[in-house]
Amino acid sequence: MAELSKEGGGSGVVVVAWALGLDVGGEPTELRRASVGCWVIQSVRLLEVRGFTQILAAEKITAMTISFRIDRILGDRPFTEVGDPVLAVDDAGRGLLAVAGTHVAVAGGHDFGSTAPVGVYGIDDLTCRALLRTRYPVHAMAFHPRLPLLAVGTGNYDGGYFFEGESLLLDLETGSATSLIEHELGCQVLGLEWRSEQELGVLIAPPDDWQDKDAWHEGHVAVVHRLDWTVVPSRSITGYDLAGPRVAAPRTDRREDARQTVSGLSTNWDPRRNVRAVEELPDGRIVATLDGVQLESWLPSGQRQWAVRDNDGGGRDIVIAADERSAWVGLVRPPWEKRAQAVVRLALQDGAQLDQHTPADAVSLVRCADGLPALAPAGRNGERSRLRIRRGSRIYFRETISTQDGQQPGPGEAWLAAADLRSIPVAERPREPRRAEVDHLCPYSPENQVRHTSPAPAWRPPTVI
To answer: Exposed site from 19, 75, 106, 165, fewest CB < 10 Å?
Structure first.
């Protein structure tokens, strides 16, 4: 049993932390970033060690000095931290295995953000010894022959010109990582090999593909020499260090090999990715949405009761229905598909689908102050235009207002909009605001630096999640 003590305050809430520790759930919502925020960072560190797609439930907070006791870890299994493995490299001498996971969008992010996890495990007990999150997909890893270091090579194509990436050095004792390449964009690192205790062989992609079709299957090989790799400063590997002859560099897919490696070490392995929302039910059960699963239910004993699989993006938002016997779930669909995003109602007893609603446009499913669900317009730019404000007395969302000549405005003309809660929807289906019900309150600013360019009604910023 692990305990953490931290000074803080707050009334009784049951707290749940999940994917990447970006948020915590509970009642009342106002505690999410106030009194709770001072100690939830500590719980995130535990989640980072045990698994970023596991769910952690904590006991109630009742005193000024908080004794934070881990009550349950749900979804705990080997290699949970990395999700779907794409690369696995072992160090038989030290009994270690490094596993890199799929590069995925960050759950709950409000901007274009993605990450690829790298976990280092003990082969004997499969305990996660270190965890790293990289900005780019992982292509190469190599354990230092003597020192407690793991070299990690990452990168991808920027979509129009450059091959970007990083060469990272992970200290297995401290868990800290150092980005080594000097240039701001770095370079895509395709291969790594320790030639000796002081020499690291590096295979990198060309800087760009301008009039260079061979850049997609060739690269440059170099050998970087350092006397002591434990004290190498960040951004200290220069273009001169990486200069080398051009060689064939096929981009080999190692996902199947990685899957076979982790499956051979654990029959209980099963990828879990990107837990997006968590709610506690009155009977003590926990329900959650995640990649590949619309909704899953966990019993107080820690056993998963049921899960509703989804072949597309899985679930995102949860609103427990007023009868507490069902829940509305907003589903994720790939942005490149033309299909509308669906919202489904699932029975909390067994996950059976009771109802389905298909909005005309992208939405966020939120719970209003009266406990009923509503659909807040989410715009067309994915997470960048999505705004979740739960338990509001109105339906809040962000909207870009067109100029008089019909042209789209610049980024400074995004507004915070709201729609009043009017009639109770039929069969408790989520409310959808009509255009005539929408008021534009003030220019939208994610830093809460609101500038009123015209008179606006008195408005208190609601809690944003």
So the answer is: 106
